[in-house]
Every structure is written in C-alpha cells, then in structure tokens.
Write a structure and sequence with these properties.
Blueprint: E1 2-5, E2 16-19, E3 31-34, H1 55-77, E4 89-97, E5 101-104, E6 109-116, E7 123-125, H2 130-145, H3 148-151, H4 158-174, H5 178-188, E8 200-201, H6 203-212, E9 225-226, H7 252-276, H8 281-302, H9 310-325, H10 330-339, H11 356-365, E10 372-377, E11 383-396, E12 399-411, E13 417-423, H12 427-443, H13 450-453, E14 455-459, E15 464-468, E16 471-472
Parallel strand pairs: 3-4, 4-6, 12-15
Antiparallel strand pairs: 1-2, 5-6, 5-16, 6-7, 8-9, 10-11, 11-12, 12-13, 14-15
Helix pairs in contact: 1-2, 1-4, 1-8, 2-4, 4-7, 7-8, 7-10, 8-9, 9-10
The structure holds zinc ion.
Length: 473
Amino acid sequence: MKIRYLPQDPLVGGVREVTLKGSGGLANERMSVQDQASVARPDADGNFLYELGTPEFQQGNTFVAANRTLDMFEKAVGHKIPWAFQGDLKIHTHYGSGFNAFYLRQDHSLNFFDGVDQKTGKTIHGSESLDVISHETGHAILDGLRPGLMGWFGSGEAPAFHESFGDMTAILTSLQDDLVIERVCQETGGDLRKPNVAARLAEEMSQGINHTYLQSTRPESWVMRDANNDYLYVRPEGLPEKAPPEVLSPEPHSFSRIFTGAFWEMLSGVQERMLAQGQSPQQALRASRDVMASMLGHAVELGPNRLNRFHQMAQAFLKADERYFGGEYKDLLQDVLGSRNLISKAAPEVQAPRDISAAMALVHSSGGDPMPESVWKNDRGETFVRFDAIQEVQLDAHTTTDLAASLTLGIDSEGQVFHSLWEPVTDETVEAARQEVSLLRRREPAGSSDLERGYSAQPTRQGQKLSKLAVAY
Ligand SMILES: [Zn+2]
C-alpha cells in the first residue's frame, strides 16, 4: 500500500509517497494508529494518499515514520526488537493541545500534540514531523531493549540518555531518505560540521515554541536541539537547575545534547573516512549512517540496564566497535568521546560472572528468581538474556519502592558467554532513588495526576509503595 508522508520536518518539506508492506490499513502486528478523529481508510486501490495538513495525512505520517524507525533499528541489530509491554504500540496522533509529544509504557502509547503558533496563528502538528515521531518511537525502542533505564527511581543520567537516543534515532531515520541525504549534501558540500537539516531537530515545533513561549526572542532559524554542537560533559549536579535554552542544565533534554553532539561528531568522523576512501558525499553519508545505526544499537545491547553516568554508555560504544567492527573505529571513538569528557579515567566495573552457572548463582544470591526477563537472538547467532532480581526497598518509614538488580548476558553461537554485566542494588542505588523521589515530591503540583507527578502510589500496611511511571517526552 502507498502512503504519503514527510521524510523529515514540515519546515523542510518534500511530501513523498512510500510503499509499505501489509494491507491492514494503519495497523500491523507491531503498532496501530488510534485517534479521537476516525482513523483514515484506504482509497479504492488500498492507498493512503491524503493531503498534507489533514488528520488522515497525519495518521499515515505517524504510521510510516514509526515503522521506518523500528525497521531501521531491527536491521541494525539483526533481530526483532521487543516492546517493554505485551501487544502493539498505540499511536495517538492527536492526543491534546500544546507543543509536545510523549511515550508512556504503562499505556503502550506514543502521543502527539497540536499547538497554535501565537505569532502566525498556524497549528503545528507534532504528528507531521518525522523528527518528533521518530524521537518518541526511539523512546519505545530503547525501553524495549533496556527497560531499566526508565523503570526505576534513581536512574542518574539515564533520562538524558533516553532523550539523546530519541534524537540520534530521529537523525538516523531521516537519513534513510534519499531526499534528506541530497539536501544535507547540498547544504554542507560533504562537511557535516556545517549547519544542516539532519542535525537540526524539530524545526517547526521549535519555531512555534520560539514564537509562543520565548516571545520570538530567538532568530527564526532557531531550533531546540542541534546535534552539531560543542557541549562538553560536566557532572549535572554542578549545573544551574534553570537556564536559558542555549545553556546546559540538568534537565534531561538539555543535558542530552552532550551525548548527541558526540554522536554527530562520531558520524562525521566515519563519513570523513569514507570520503577519504573516494566515496561521493552521498555514498559516504549513507555508509556512515549505517555504521552508526549499528554502533548505537549494539552499544545499547552491551550497555547498562541502569545508567548512572554517560561514561558507561561511551564505554559501551567502544565495546560495540570492538565486537562488531573489529576495533576499526577505536581511535576515532576515543578521540571524540575523550574530547567531550565522556571517557572516565576511573571507571571501576563490577566483576561480572564469566559463565552461565556462576551468573545464575549470583542472581539467586541477591534474592531474585532467575527467570529471564528478556531474550533475543540476532542474525549472528548471538543470544542476549537479561535477568532482573527485583527487591522492595525502604525509601522512608512509610514509603517503599521496587528496585532491580540486573544481569545481562551475551552468549555466542558456540554457547560461550562473551559479554556479562552485573548491576547490583547497592546503598548508592537506594540513596539515588530516595533523592529522586524527594525531588519529585517537592515539584508535585497540588491535585496532580500520576502522569504529572511521574509516579503512582499504592497504599500498603506501612504507608505506600511508589512505582515510577515509565514516561518520556
Ligand atoms: Zn524525548
């Protein structure tokens, strides 16, 4: 079936027709469009050729962009990516009004907003921007692979990595389209350090935010996030809690720009190598896109299920390069990550078991029931298994929550453990959870919903048990 969609952002333009497998309308076994407005029906030929600006176009657009995003990562890691929940992902194309979008695990959903630009009077639809749709789909994909990154309190820099993952995903997905490749090559002449549409994110929504919330104080070309940046890693604790958009703050979207900046620089470095080998700018961009999609997907699989610091993910990129590229990009990765302060001088790693029986003993000893939480096998014959040993911990005299110790194992086609990562619950883990809960409670609006608070509370005999809402904007 043919569907009309936008390959990047409405401000970039270029409505395209793509052919998608399936004939079930805007639903397949992985995702379905659900809407307050009735969901678009195909024409007599089974196609969805709706005009830009209509709710039907927006429904088709979210479906195409979310599917392209999932397809790209499944190809990059070589296996079907599970969701962090049972059933399909619901795409709520018109969820409410504003300049936003979010993923909510508990609701199995992606949600997009429509906001009115106060200067132009134009309605800006999150569902028309591939940057926005792909970013939210990225949250769902990362949650499927590493649910611990948003499942527990006290997750350190994990929320910022989640935001960065969404942006890296949007960049890689937009670069799947030849029109975008062509546009970037025209803008940059092959020098990816120059401004371009792939690195600049959510152009139209940024314009609406500038006109509406920032009193048009920024230039017309201003965007919320640009991967082509120079931000260096510093500990978020040392940054001002509130800062203008250009200044780093601990707020996850703001802080995420450090990692996304490093990612764009790695992609640029790979592309420069391809150029030096005689490839055309278009070929080099396609090839570097594929290398970095694979590097990112594998790094997530080899990386932590809970993330305290960005350094752990930087380490995972080096591991991914070593295992899947034979160390081909080691120097490049070390240069970029090192110059961004993303490689920690002292990175003590918890001793992880080297074989399966030692691993099982470890999970048993932490009081957990070693049932695999997640298993997948990739097209190289490698199997990844994760076990979560969940324990209830005391936050204060009346409040408890669950935390999980995670063990991740990678087993090669010969049955040998080639990767193991053990993340126990420690005093620091519990303390970090306490701090996050007290921060959320300080900010809690009166009479707020679970979604506004970021957690739900169940009454217990001693008081209450809190569960973190797995949500990201
Ligand atoms: Zn996000």
